[in-house]
Amino acid sequence: MLNRTQIREVLDTMEAMYPDAECELTHSNSFELTIAVLLSAQATDALVNKVTPALFDKYKSPEDYLAVPLEELEQDIRRIGLFRSKAKNIQKLCRSLIDDFDGDIPKERDELVKLAGVGRKTANVVTSVAFGRPAIAVDTHVERVSKRLGLCRWKDSVLEVEKALMKKIPEAEWSDTHHRMIFFGRYHCKAQKPACPECPLLYLCREGKKREKKTAAG
DNA sequence: CTCCCGATAT
DNA sequence: ATATCAGGAG
C-alpha cells in the first residue's frame, strides 16, 4: 500500500500524463450521457461512439424509445453486445423517467441508481460528468490501476476500491483523478499489454516490478 | 455467483 | 482460440 507522499506522486504523474482527461463518450445532454454509459457496460467507448450518433438522431426523448417495439431498439444497439438486456433496461429507464422523475435525469446518485440498468458506477459517472458532483466511478480500468499501483488492497470489492480512493484523494480532485485513471488504464496500464518498461510510476508499483522480473528472467 | 454478448486486440 | 471492454440484474 502506498503512503501519502507516494499517492501525491501518483496523482501528479497522472496529471502530467493526461492533463485534459475527460469523458470520451460522445453526448450532448444528461439523457444521452446516461444512455451512453448504460450501453458502455462491457463494451469499449469507441464502439459505443460508433452506434450512438444514429441512435441519438433517431431517439431524442424517453417517449421516442418507448414508441418503438423492443425488438427494433434491440437491433439499433445490437453491435454493442448485451443488447437484449440493455434494450430492455433503456425502455424501463425511460418509463420510470416519465412516471417518477418528471422526464428528467435525476442529479443525485441515490436517485440515479433507481433507474433500470444504472448501478453505482454509471450513477457516479452521470452525477459527476453531467452535474459536476465530486465522485469516483470505479470501472474496470480504475479497479485494475488501483490494485496494480497499491492504492487499495488486491482483495477489495469495487465499492471498497471507491471508498479507499475517496479516503486517500482530496474531494476537489476526485473527478479529474477519476478520468486520468481511466486514461492511464486504457492507454498505458492496459489489461493485456501494460507499458511497464516506459512507466514513470514503475519505481513505486508492486505489480510493475513483478512483471519486470518476469520478463528479465524469461 | 452466473448470465448477458458483439467487437476488437493479442 | 482467448481475453477484454467506462457493469448490472437475477
Automatic annotation (TrEMBL):
It catalyses: 2'-deoxyribonucleotide-(2'-deoxyribose 5'-phosphate)-2'-deoxyribonucleotide-DNA = a 3'-end 2'-deoxyribonucleotide-(2,3-dehydro-2,3-deoxyribose 5'-phosphate)-DNA + a 5'-end 5'-phospho-2'-deoxyribonucleoside-DNA + H(+). Transmembrane segments: none annotated. Its EC number is 4.2.99.18. It holds the Pfam family HHH. One of its GO terms (molecular function) is class I DNA-(apurinic or apyrimidinic site) endonuclease activity. It is an enzyme of class 4 (lyase). The keyword Hydrolase applies. Belongs to the Nth/MutY family. PANTHER family: A/G-SPECIFIC ADENINE GLYCOSYLASE/ENDONUCLEASE III, ENDONUCLEASE III. NCBIfam families: nth. DNA repair enzyme that has both DNA N-glycosylase activity and AP-lyase activity. The DNA N-glycosylase activity releases various damaged pyrimidines from DNA by cleaving the N-glycosidic bond, leaving an AP (apurinic/apyrimidinic) site. The AP-lyase activity cleaves the phosphodiester bond 3' to the AP site by a beta-elimination, leaving a 3'-terminal unsaturated sugar and a product with a terminal 5'-phosphate. This is Endonuclease III.
